[in-house]
Amino acid sequence: MKNAITAISLIVLAASAASAQETTWSGSIKGIVEKHCLVCHGADSAPEYPLFKKEKEKWLTKGQGMRMDSYSHLVSFVGWPNTGAMMRRLDDGKSSKDGKPGNMYQHLGSTESERQQNLGLFKAWIGNWSLKRWSDTTKDDLIGIKVLY
Ligand code: HEC
């Protein structure tokens, strides 16, 4: 009996430790995006992606990107249809072929340590940090994507 109780408490402990480590959109990523990205990717001023593509020059002149204000918007730049876009743009150069950071990395924070910390959270949230485009992406790459809500 005592052993059974010990075993159960260990399982409960392990389960709560695992869930405490999970990085979620609602717990971590939403706040980063609100603080650092929505000035250019917010619902009020930025268009849906296809609209942005259609009138790219117009939006670029305004300094606006495409909408990324919700969970659903954000994950479409991770898995599909814009496979790997989030990773290519946010990478600090450690995973890119040319060793250069993506052009959105600079927005992750005002200091290098803040940028690294927020990049770490994005990496933990996404899981499989693959910079590949859709044509090179494998089923295993997709299975490795976590993006918890
Ligand atoms: C100063 C404005 C600005 C800020 C702040 C900004 N972005 Fe952007 N972003 C843009 C613009 C404009 C584009 C479109 C031009 C381009 O492709 O570089 C873009 C493009 C992107 C793309 C590429 C989407 C695609 O598939 O073409 C991603 C991903 C992205 N941003 C993510 C982010 C994230 C995440 C943040 C916050 C850490 C962020 N951006 C902060 C202006 C900004």
Sum up the structure in keywords.
149 residues, 0% strand, mainly alpha, single chain, binds heme C, 53% helix, 9 helices
Order of helices and strands: HHHHHHHHH
- Main beta sheet strand tally, sense and closure: none
**In percent terms, what proportion of residues is strand?**
under 5%
Query: What's the pLDDT, averaged over the residues?
Result: 92
Derived from helix and strand composition plus strand pairing, the structural class reads: mainly alpha
- Hetero groups: heme C
What is the number of independent domains? 1
Helix count equals: 9
Overall form: globular
Distance between the termini: 38 Å
Overview of this protein structure:
- The chain has one domain.
- By secondary structure, the chain is mainly α.
- The model has no long low-confidence stretch (mean pLDDT 92).
- The longest helix has 20 residues.
- It starts with a helix and ends in a 6-residue tail after the last helix.
- It contains 9 helices and no strands.
- Helix 2 crosses helix 8.
- The structure holds heme C.
- The site of heme C has 19 residues, from helix 3 and helix 7.
Topology of this structure?
Layout: H1 2-21, H2 25-36, H3 38-41, H4 49-54, H5 56-61, H6 71-75, H7 85-90, H8 112-126, H9 139-143
Concise description?
This protein is mainly α and 149 residues long.
